[in-house]
């Protein structure tokens, strides 16, 4: 089937619907087929004109590494964050050419550097497939059997859609199982780097300033999508605002927030507070300490590990903030009150009580089931015990050989036909793998496994009488999986080739996979299946109470958020909404101009030459409802013009995973004026400036 761009039609069944519903304040990560027009009109006097939402939706881009972006020219130019592009920057870098640290600018089209394994998705259509997903669920089925039926139905829907459209097709679970929508995406896999600033300005302030404000970062990166070897021709792209935004102005964010748990029951929150977050934070702290130590060994070791270090540090700080929020008595009381009110409403109606009343208790039982397997699941299936790119490749090959011969509906989700192309893009990536770093990571993770579960019989079989360091050295030295040709040959040879392989990483994957799969299946049956069935009941109860003014939790699918540019107060002190370029120099001076507060030479040179307008706005905050995954999202005004680029939230925003609050929580963005000033005055990126400003 021809997989080139098909005519773009945005649908929900047969009609595109904007819901006229009211919500509280500027709360909400709204799906594009249920936008709160009544709220926008009542609170902000704004009614989007015809085509406004479709244009913004078609301009938004999802990165397969967990970030967002947007088309900003008709020739496929894409804007995102430096930290979203960091993985690609690292993979394109070498010891002699460290684009991640020094930046990159393609002065000609021929210099645009191809990313080794980057996939971008653009949402084409949404269809409600709830009835089709639930069609195979029978009244006599338990939750596990019902979940299996839904997974098979979803696989069939995805396969049929992909065969019909040639597009990536994903069945998305909304309202934790209350509804299911089919999202279809146009894919771009020829993606090339155009521009990135130096790391020192992209992440100015480093970990100490992360999740803080005021900020002074140029966290921006530009890529270009290609088709058939030429820049992609884009019908819908965002225009650049010459004037930026102002205090109190309404702004919109179109991006892909990763995950929220705002509909979680108190039992789910208690599990996260008492077990989930403490376990995760323990591992993040240990991994961070290891990465810091490895990076101190030398410049090349730091280069190889720094992107992973900054990712771990970001996760650690974000999860710590969320964990503190889950311990806040006021927040917990608010969540408990909301749950009590809904349960009382259900209990007051015998029919509702019979239909929905047991849902909360069943979810509580699922949390107990999760607690029983949480530690081994995290170690094996989630990779904390065997942290190695080589092992990840081995497991993909082992599972690919096992899953591909099965009927599509019976496979693990990531091995369905709808996702195989994306999986193979990553599996056969030419990105470099560094053996010394691999040995160190694997030794660390095996040591962590031994620390957590010293008497695990599976660990004893993995180590086979060796220390973690000895085992890691032997495994990495002996594997041939760094060679893409070897990977392809094993993948083509299927199960027979895997079973005959003497590669130590393949053997390791075969050794641990049965237990890892068992734990995954137990979670699917006893936790995910129970939660999906019973959160669906709670969602129905909510719909009966409030209609579809209840937006779904984030699922790394495209959402619209909105808010106003607005400062806030901390301990009685006002925090203005904007920072300016001059503030970056002052901030650097106040910290002795030492890393992570050392501005690049290019910025000092531009200042000395008096090219740089020091009063140009650089960063700003707004009340837009965003979380992780929104990184790289465009911030636009009422005219759909780019006024900013989301790159962070303040520390007060870290509780937004579990509940909305706009008193002090803020989204942090790079100002469009700061981006343009840097491109013009610091980097002399005339080709890029012309492309962004051409009508």
TrEMBL record:
Keyword Protease included in the entry's annotation: yes
Stored Pfam families: Peptidase_S46
Annotated transmembrane regions: none
Keyword Protease: yes
Swiss-Prot/TrEMBL keywords: Aminopeptidase, Hydrolase, Protease, Serine protease, Signal
Highest taxon in the source lineage: Bacteria
Function: Catalyzes the removal of dipeptides from the N-terminus of oligopeptides.
Protein family per UniProt: Belongs to the peptidase S46 family.
E.C. number(s) listed in UniProt: 3.4.14.-
Coiled-coil annotated residue ranges, if any: none
Descriptive protein name: Dipeptidyl-peptidase
GO BP: any one term: peptide catabolic process
MF terms (GO), sorted A to Z: dipeptidyl-peptidase activity; serine-type aminopeptidase activity
InterPro entries: Pep_S46, Peptidase_S1_PA, Peptidase_S1_PA_chymotrypsin
């Amino acid at each position: 089937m021809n997989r080139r761009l098909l005519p773009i039609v945005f649908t929900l069944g047969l009609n595109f619907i904007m819901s006229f519903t009211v919500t509280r304040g500027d709360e909400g990560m709204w799906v594009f087929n249920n936008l709160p027009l009544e709220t926008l009109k009542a609170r902000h006097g704004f009614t989007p004109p015809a085509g406004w939402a479709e244009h913004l939706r078609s301009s938004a881009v999802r990165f397969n590494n967990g970030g967002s972006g947007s088309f900003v020219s008709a020739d496929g130019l894409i804007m995102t964050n430096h930290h979203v592009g960091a993985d690609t920057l690292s993979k394109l870098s070498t010891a002699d050419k460290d684009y991640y640290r020094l930046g990159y600018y393609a002065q000609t089209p021929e210099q645009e550097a191809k990313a080794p394994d980057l996939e971008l998705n653009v949402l084409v259509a949404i269809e409600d497939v709830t009835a089709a997903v639930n069609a195979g669920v029978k009244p006599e089925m338990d939750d596990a059997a019902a979940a299996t039926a839904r997974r098979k139905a979803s696989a069939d829907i995805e396969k049929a859609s992909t065969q019909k459209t040639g597009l990536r097709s994903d069945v998305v679970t909304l309202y934790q199982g209350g509804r299911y929508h089919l999202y279809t995406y146009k894919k771009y896999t020829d993606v090339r780097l155009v521009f990135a600033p130096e790391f020192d300005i992209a992440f100015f302030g480093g970990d100490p300033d992360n999740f803080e404000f005021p900020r002074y970062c140029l966290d921006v990166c530009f890529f270009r999508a290609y088709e058939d070897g030429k820049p992609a021709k884009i019908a819908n792209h965002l225009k650049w605002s010459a004037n930026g935004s102002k205090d109190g102005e309404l702004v919109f964010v179109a991006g892909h927030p990763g995950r929220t748990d705002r509909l979680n029951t108190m039992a789910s929150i208690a599990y996260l507070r008492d077990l989930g977050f403490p376990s995760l934070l323990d591992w993040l702290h240990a991994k961070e300490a290891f990465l810091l130590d490895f990076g101190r060994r030398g410049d090349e070791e730091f280069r190889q590990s720094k992107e992973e270090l900054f990712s771990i540090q970001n996760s650690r700080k974000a999860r710590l903030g969320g964990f503190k929020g889950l311990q806040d008595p006021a927040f917990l009381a608010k969540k408990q009150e909301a749950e009590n009110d809904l349960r009382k409403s259900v209990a007051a109606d015998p029919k509702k009580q019979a239909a929905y009343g047991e849902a909360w208790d069943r979810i509580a039982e699922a949390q107990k089931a999760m607690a029983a397997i949480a530690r081994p699941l995290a170690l094996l299936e989630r990779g904390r015990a065997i942290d190695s790119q080589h092992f990840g490749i081995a497991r993909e090959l082992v599972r690919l050989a096992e899953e591909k011969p099965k009927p599509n509906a019976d496979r693990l989700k990531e091995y369905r036909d709808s996702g195989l192309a994306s999986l193979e893009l990553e599996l056969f990536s030419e990105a470099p793998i560094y053996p010394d770093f691999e040995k160190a990571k694997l030794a660390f993770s095996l040591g962590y496994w031994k620390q957590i579960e010293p008497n695990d019989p599976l660990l004893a079989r993995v180590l086979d009488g060796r220390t973690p360091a000895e085992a890691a050295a032997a495994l990495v030295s002996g594997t041939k999986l760094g060679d893409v040709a070897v990977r392809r040959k094993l993948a083509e040879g299927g199960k027979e080739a895997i079973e005959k392989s003497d590669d130590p990483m393949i053997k390791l994957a075969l050794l641990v996979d049965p237990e890892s799969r068992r734990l995954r299946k137990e979670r699917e049956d006893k936790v995910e299946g129970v939660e999906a069935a019973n959160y669906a009941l709670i969602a129905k109860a909510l719909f009966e109470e409030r209609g579809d003014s209840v937006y779904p939790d984030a699922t790394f699918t495209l959402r619209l958020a909105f808010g106003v540019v607005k400062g806030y107060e901390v301990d009685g002190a006002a925090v203005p909404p904007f920072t300016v370029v001059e503030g970056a120099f002052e901030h650097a001076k106040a910290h002795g101009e030492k890393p992570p507060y050392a501005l690049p030479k290019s910025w000092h040179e531009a200042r000395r030459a008096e090219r740089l307008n020091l009063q140009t706005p650089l960063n700003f905050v707004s009340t837009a409802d965003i979380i992780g995954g929104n990184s790289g999202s465009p911030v636009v005004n009422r005219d759909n013009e780019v006024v900013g680029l989301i790159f962070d939230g303040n520390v007060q925003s870290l509780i937004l995973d579990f509940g909305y609050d706009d008193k002090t929580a803020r989204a942090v963005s790079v100002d469009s004026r700061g981006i343009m000033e840097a491109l013009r005055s610091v980097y002399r990126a005339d080709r890029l400036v012309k492309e962004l400003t051409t009508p």
